[in-house]
Design a protein that fits this description.
The complex is a heterodimer.
Chain A lengths: L2 H28 L4 H12 L2 H25 L8 H18 L5 H30 L3 H24 L9 E2 L12 H7 L11 H18 L1 H11 L1 H6 L4 H18 L2 H8 L2 E2 L6 H11 L4 H17 L1 H6 L5 H49 L1
Antiparallel strand pairs in A: 1-2
Helix pairs in contact in A: 1-2, 1-16, 2-14, 3-8, 3-11, 3-13, 3-14, 4-5, 4-6, 4-11, 4-13, 5-6, 5-11, 8-9, 13-14
Chain B lengths: L2 E12 L2 E12 L3 E5 L6 H8 L7 E6 L2 E3 L4 H6 L2 E4 L11 H6 L5 E2 L2 E2 L1 H15 L14 H14 L4 E5 L7 H16 L3 E5 L3 H7 L2 E6 L2 E6 L6 H9 L17 E11 L5 E11 L3 E5 L6 H9 L6 E6 L2 E2 L5 H6 L3 E3 L3 H5 L6 H4 L19 H14 L16 H14 L5 E4 L7 H16 L4 E4 L3 H7 L2 E6 L2 E6 L6 H9 L4
The chains are: A mainly alpha, B alpha/beta.
Chain lengths: 375, 503
């Protein structure tokens, strides 16, 4: 990749982050805090090994959520049902994972993951099925399905299937240790130092694997070509032989399967049960990840880590009393806003340049002829 | 005679393109002034500048001897300039009356004063012989009538200078005569008409003065009595016009595609195609003539497998494919050049090489295994198409939206020709491409025919149809109304069949 190409890819998001820092500093100053001290504290706290590990732990589900959204987005499906899909998937995965007791570890983990992917795919597939049979827009159906999943199915079944425990938290299942995902701490400690309190989730490897598979399937496979063709122009795709309905359902199933994995880092690596306090909002956060990462496997990874880090490192603001941590929410919002603007500008420039290059091709032989005609 | 419009040294640049290059245009008051030139010669840009839709980079505009600068069409309308676009801007569910006054309604208090509007429109209609029933819903009207509404719309707004952008493109010959009668009456009333066209016989029949544009420049200003159609064509293209003409008969006894009594009913229950049957042999070109919208689109979509048929059967190389998916049909060799390349033929944001395999992405030659696309083979294929069909592009990675319309069309045609499709359905294969490339495409089609291609050719260009086809079908209201021998038919006769005048 040439230097200009690199600049074009990283330029817009970097500009967005830079502008967001400026806006955040402005907000801090207006609210009477010392921006430099606050940023200094975030940096100091954020560069600790433990914070970095927590950032990656947070980035892992964010990334999967972003990829789930991006899969559908590549064919212009606005799949905002990742939220409901991953919560429902985590719920049933916890139920099945706890229900089988102890198993041969890889088998136990695989069973839980497959359950989650199937549930996520089924829930997303429902929206796809409604789109192709009843022409229901996926935004409407996935919003509804989110509500049904979280407020309906999960609330209803949690009340029936909950287990008794000393904590006040209503929880479902306790997955036996054979269904736990290993931590990567021993490996990280080989090259760094002893890690306190936190564990780097091994699920980050699964996320990376999903990212690679996403990139290869979307950009290099026949199926990916069909998906992207449908996204670029559904009418031309149809005429080229892509079955439109089957492709919509397939994209939703794939997206939902990845969505099903979003909650697995927490379920297998951290909590080992489903409860009312299971992380929420990862599905919507994933939209921002996909947006900032331009639906690109690497771009989304960078965005996920960035958002994860901002969220974790900002905790220090409240601890030290520098500023409310909501300042980070503002920053995230501003980054997304500026990124969208910067991408739009960059794309317009690319379009103009490409058109100029193409018409230069056309003009060159004719320009000679025109000059001859003039003389 | 006074001058209605004087454009001096108009220059307009688009990124990388010089659309208008110091164009001078003088239109005298009360004349019909034709502007002709090939696609991409700069006609539309020049008219958009005169109508205030675009600002020139250089040059001046004088209307009725007064220098003007327009920043919007509204300002052009205010000095009496009106424009009828190629694509009509009418609301189908409103009546003629409502459409005409839309945006310029006479009011009585807070109500629309329909009575005043009605009587003013009657006056206008009577004065210019523009016959229309004001209470008809526009959706039910023919193209010619819709065009008349557009003309009345601009007259109602006080236009004295009318710009018509390729008004005859959508009309059948009989409607063209009607339009010309209307234009002559408008001229008799002292209106000035600027008329964009590239059908030379029409230009010669109606215009008082002709300005010819070529590659963004005004190359000639002539009087119709001083030139022949051949002279004009030479001015436009700067060379001799090629004539399509198929040589020896190559028809074989192998059937490429056979359609038996198919019908198509659209979503609203209207029958679009009724009991259509014909066959195309390998090595044969079957042309389909007809005014656009008489079932050609539905026929193409039925053969392709997009539009479900309600009766009859479709066969490719002897196999009954009526129940097959689009993909199965494409894999059986069916090629497709769509009439609207942007809608059905291209992925505009995608690079040239990806577009080069669209429709053929399941062929083994573009796959490295069952799952993966072979990028190298696909790029080689795109390079081959670019070279063979003279597609002007910086490379295979350029997004297709950056290419000019003609080059996009060459890419679509080249893609289908270079993938050895058989049969091939081609709708308007040379629409929007320059004369040189048009001749090359015709040559390629002939060569492929000699090698055994069965081609179903749908075209609005009668010369192309007659010159290339071995058999000619005429479609009218979803039915095949005539089977003609292209060697014996004249464009005049064909026009009569197309409008149903001889039935």
């Amino acid at each position: 990749m040439s230097w200009t190409a690199v600049r074009r890819v990283v330029g817009p998001p970097l500009a967005a982050v830079g502008l967001a820092l400026l806006v955040a500093a402005l907000v801090l100053v207006v609210s009477g805090a010392d921006a430099l001290v606050a940023f200094g504290n975030i940096w100091e706290y954020g560069s600790r090994l433990e914070t970095v590990i927590e950032s990656f732990n947070r980035a892992t589900p964010l990334y999967l959520s972003g990829i789930a959204f991006a899969i559908a987005m590549r064919m212009n499906l606005f799949q905002i049902g990742v939220e409901g899909q991953y919560i429902l998937a985590a719920f049933f995965a916890a139920y099945v994972g706890a229900g089988v007791g102890s198993l041969f570890p890889p088998l136990h983990v695989a069973l839980i993951l497959v359950t989650a992917m199937l549930v996520g795919a089924a829930w997303a597939g429902l929206a796809g099925w409604m789109k192709v049979t009843r022409n229901v827009h996926e935004v409407i159906s996935t919003i509804m399905l989110n509500a049904i999943a979280v407020a309906g199915v999960v609330s209803f079944l949690l009340g029936r299937w909950k287990i008794e425990s000393e904590s006040l938290d209503t929880r479902l299942g306790d997955i036996a240790t054979t269904g736990w995902f290993p931590s990567l701490n021993p490996i990280v400690e080989l090259v760094t130092r002893e890690i306190k309190r936190v564990e780097l989730t091994g699920f980050i490897l699964v996320a990376a694997l999903v990212g690679v598979a996403y990139h290869l399937i979307i950009n290099r496979s026949r199926l990916g070509y069909d998906l992207r063709a449908t996204g670029a122009n559904p009418w031309a795709a149809e005429a080229s032989g892509v079955p439109p309905k089957r492709t919509i359902v397939l994209a939703m199933l794939l997206s939902g399967a990845v969505a099903g994995l979003v909650g697995m880092a927490d379920l297998l690596g951290d909590q080992h049960f489903y409860s009312l306090r299971f992380p929420q909002g990862l599905g919507f956060a994933g939209i921002a990840v996909a947006l900032l990462g331009r639906n690109h496997a690497v771009g989304a990874a960078v965005a996920a880590v960035a958002f994860g880090w901002l969220e974790r490192a900002s905790g220090v603001l409240e601890v030290r009393g520098d500023a409310p941590r909501e300042i980070v929410t503002i920053m995230v919002g501003v980054i997304i806003l500026f990124a969208v603007i910067a991408y739009a500008l960059a794309q317009r420039r690319r379009r103009i340049e490409a058109a100029a290059a193409a018409s230069a091709q056309v003009a060159s032989p004719q320009a000679v002829g025109a000059e001859e005609a003039e003389t | 005679m006074s001058v209605a419009v004087r454009l001096k040294g108009i220059t307009k640049r688009f990124p990388g393109v010089l659309a208008n290059d110091r164009i001078d245009l003088v239109v005298e008051a009360g004349e019909i002034h034709a502007i002709c030139g090939e696609n991409g010669a700069g006609k539309s840009t020049l008219m958009k500048i005169l109508y205030g839709m675009q600002a020139p980079d250089e040059g001046s505009i004088e209307v009725l001897e007064q220098e003007r600068t327009f920043s919007s069409p509204r300002e052009a309308i205010n000095v009496g300039i009106g424009m009828v676009h190629q694509h009509f801007m009418l609301a189908d569910n409103l009546t003629v009356l409502e459409n005409v006054i839309l945006g310029a309604e006479p009011s009585k208090g807070s109500l629309i004063d329909f009575a005043t509007a009605r009587s003013r429109l009657r006056e206008l209609g009577d004065a210019y012989g523009l016959e229309l029933d004001l209470e008809d819903t526009v959706g039910t009207l023919e193209v010619g009538e819709r065009q008349r509404i557009e003309i009345i719309k601009i007259l109602y707004r006080g236009a004295r200078i009318l710009i018509l952008d390729e008004p005859t493109a959508v009309l059948v010959p009989q409607e063209v005569e009607e339009l010309f009668r209307n234009l002559r009456e408008l001229k008799a009333e002292g209106h000035t008409i600027i008329f964009i066209d590239h059908k030379l016989d029409e230009v010669l029949a109606i215009a008082d003065t002709i300005t010819v544009l070529r590659q963004g420049r005004s190359v000639a200003r002539v009087k119709p009595e001083d030139v022949t159609a051949q002279d004009l064509a030479e001015l436009m293209v700067g060379s001799e016009l090629p004539t399509p003409e198929t040589r020896e008969v190559t028809v074989t006894d192998r059937t490429a595609v056979e359609v038996k009594g198919i019908s198509v009913v659209d979503d609203t229950g209207v029958t679009r195609l009724r009991d259509v049957g014909f066959s195309v042999q390998c090595g044969e070109i079957v042309g389909v003539a007809g005014v656009e919208g008489n079932g050609q689109g539905e026929l193409v979509e039925a053969i392709l497998g997009i539009a479900p048929v309600t009766g009859g059967s479709i066969h490719l190389h002897g196999d009954d494919v009526t129940g097959w998916s689009v993909r199965q049909r494409r894999e059986a060799g069916l090629g497709y050049i769509p009439e609207d390349r942007h809608r059905r033929g291209l992925l505009l944001p995608a690079p040239v090489w990806e577009n080069g395999i669209l429709g053929h992405q399941t062929r083994n030659r573009f796959l490295s295994s069952r799952v993966w696309i072979d990028e190298d083979a696909s790029k080689d294929h795109a390079t081959n198409v670019i070279e063979r069909f003279d597609v002007r592009t910086p490379g295979v990675h350029t997004p297709v939206h950056a290419l000019s319309g003609g080059n996009q069309q060459k890419l679509v045609v080249g893609r289908e020709m270079a993938t050895d499709c058989n049969p091939l359905i081609a709708a308007h294969p040379t629409r929007g491409i320059d004369v040189g490339s048009q001749a090359a495409v015709w040559e390629d089609l002939r060569r492929a025919r000699a090698e055994g291609l069965g081609l179903l050719l749908i075209s609005a260009d009668l010369e192309e149809l007659i010159g290339l086809s071995d058999t000619l079908l005429v479609m009218l209201r979803g039915e095949i109304v005539a089977r003609l021998d292209p060697a014996k038919v004249t464009p005049r006769e064909l026009g009569a069949y197309m409008t149903g005048a001889t039935a």
